[in-house]
ABC transporter ATP-binding protein (Komagataeibacter swingsii), 750 residues
Amino acid sequence: MGHPDQSADPDGRAQADTRHAPELIRLQAVLRAARFHGIDLDVHDFAGEAGQPVPTIPALARWVEENGGSAQGMRLQWRELVRLRDVPPVVLMFTDGSAGLMVGVDAARGVVWLVDPFASADTSPVAVDELRLEGVWTGDVLLVRGGQDSASREEAVNFTWLRRMVLGERQLLRDVVIASMVISVLAIFPPLIVMQVIDRVVNFHSMSTLVSLTGLVGVMSFYEILLTYARREITLVLTTRLDTRISLAVFDRLLALPLEFFEREQAGNVIGRVSAIYKVRQFMTGRLLGTFLDLFTLVVVMPFLFWLSTTLACLTVVAAGLIGVVILLAMPAVGRLMSRQVRAEMERSGALYETVAGIRTIKTLALEPVRREVWDEKTASVVTASLDAGRMGNCVATAVMPLDLFINRGIILIGAYLAITSTTSGMEAGALMAFTMLGGRVASPLVGMARLIDDLNEVRSALAEAGSVLNRPTETRALTTGLRPPIHGALAFSDVCFTYPGASAPALSDVTFSVPAGTMLGLVGRSGSGKSTITRLLQGVSRSYTGHLRLDGIDLREINLTYLRRSCGVVLQDNFLFRGTIRDNIIAGRPGLTLEDVVRAARLAGAEEFIERMPAGFDTWIEEGSTNISGGQRQRLAIARAVISDPKLMILDEATSALDPESEAVVNANLRHLARGRTMVIVSHRLASLVACHQICVMDHGHVADIGTHDELLARCAIYRTLWMQQNHPDGLNDGNGRPGVAHVQGDAA
Ligand SMILES: Nc1ncnc2c1ncn2[C@@H]1O[C@H](COP(=O)(O)OP(=O)(O)OP(=O)(O)O)[C@@H](O)[C@H]1O
């Protein structure tokens, strides 16, 4: 975290405030550049890359893009930098991990004008020349641009979307096309040379012609090798870049889908359908590009074929055309079989995912035979579908084979016949050889085009599958727009009603209560009474409720969703820890947090003591599925992760329910420290852990049955009393306050 004393530095960083860590200066620079375009960024929304101490350009660009802007990283030389004359603030990355804002260029004087990202708006920029800048500048810049068209972020995933993705790589496409065209032209020469060898060298025993032809062959082969290498290399880069583009876009879209969607859909199914997009990518850069490039060969070779022999050229075209017709006729049937195969494969991968995800339950309940049966069934469907599709393909290939053989062999015979019989055709042995060498090249693009249309069926179904997930309404708008008020934590529900999509009964009906800032609210009630639903509404997971839900007087739906979720610390019953160190898990990619913050959060969560006992302390590695730590330790780490950003609102939904009594006691004891200065909403089945809450809200069938302190509820709420007695006096004895025992109360509650 060391930061050079920039006040002593005469360059552009001179103004940078020594109180800020370099990475914060970098974030602030991007934040100011974005503000110039009316994009409001929040440093807390920035998600750094694991293992990167300073914000990287891709992570910064993603931050801007997630908030509705667009950003592009570039590596520039000084002379290129001074050409960026009329662009708004440009972020220059510095070697120490900080950054500067370039607000102007004076090419005549050879200086750029820099400002310190933290300086006030009226601070004058500093002029920095090439020499001074080069001492600190990495050469990287980030260009931030204004409001990315939100429509393009929400654009449907279909052929137009894919075309836009592919055309995004225009330059590489152009290079591949040029290389292919030259290769196509070069392809004419070998047959020409063969023609010359046979007609001139062999027939006339001309050694000198052979020598010159050998030289020519050598030179051309060299160029062909070079060009083919270049084309392969460019195609490789093109494919990889396209893969990256598509991956990023698809993943962004997937993350923007609301949680409700993932809860409804089977995870394996979602993965299978989204992965279908790669079939499409494969098609675009494989078959489609290949056939497109082959077409150049066709354009170049065709006239040459007609020049060699019109009759043979016509016969070749007719045969290739017939192949195309056969394929087109078979296409609908093949298409249907292909879709069936795609669907069967997706269902099988869904079953595989489900088995791996639920392996613990499968093993514990000895469900292996059942899962095996499901797998066998799905595999059988895949096998049948692939066999059917394969057989159909085989039939088509066999049907076109005679035509294919005709092009490759029959043409030689007809050519030979023409050469022997016709005095006018003028076809010589060399020309016939050349023709047969080139004839195959004409057939393959024509056949390829027909197959292409055939493949389109498969691609269309794959794209439709991916689209059925990715084209659902996202929460992007809510995530990137809305207010970001300072949060104190006062909650108010008034007449809130909510029904889950597809459910017949409402989960919440006319819920009205309020929670003053900085107090603790306990939520109790029988299973299914709506407790978790209340916490979901608070986190903005479900937003289709009626009535009003206000946070500090502001309607929750007006608050930026990302900001709201970041401002809320949430601990659930089963918290997922990522593979990585304890420190990484607690920081969870939030910028600007130090080890001291991690230690403070761990202390608050009661986790410090057990972490320190671990061999590597905060650098202890957590395995996948947190198998190397206990349930209680995992919960405490989850609490530390939730409190590290000091949220003013915390939600604990059955956070201690799965813990043993000792771990629960430790966590509960810490809750009191934790609660200081924050609003806490605690859902718990164990009423004893809620006694200290300022208010306890008793839910019953989606209604608020009562709300009050523990003592008030014990005195007046039958449901609460029943639950309390069941947990604390299960023998049905009087609770010692002269209140009735459980048997009596149950009658009451009914
Ligand atoms: N994703 C969902 N889709 C449809 N209905 C749901 C969904 N989640 C919950 N419900 C229904 O909404 C009602 C309230 O559920 P909720 O999870 O809020 O209850 P709860 O009081 O938290 O229960 P528990 O104590 O068992 O966690 C229940 O009837 C439940 O069946």
Remarks:
- The first strand starts at residue 70 and ends at 75.
- The domain at 159-470 is CATH 1.20.1560.10 (ABC transporter transmembrane region fold).
- The chain has three domains: 6-150, 159-470, 491-716.
- The CA atoms of residues 166 and 242 lie 7 Å apart.
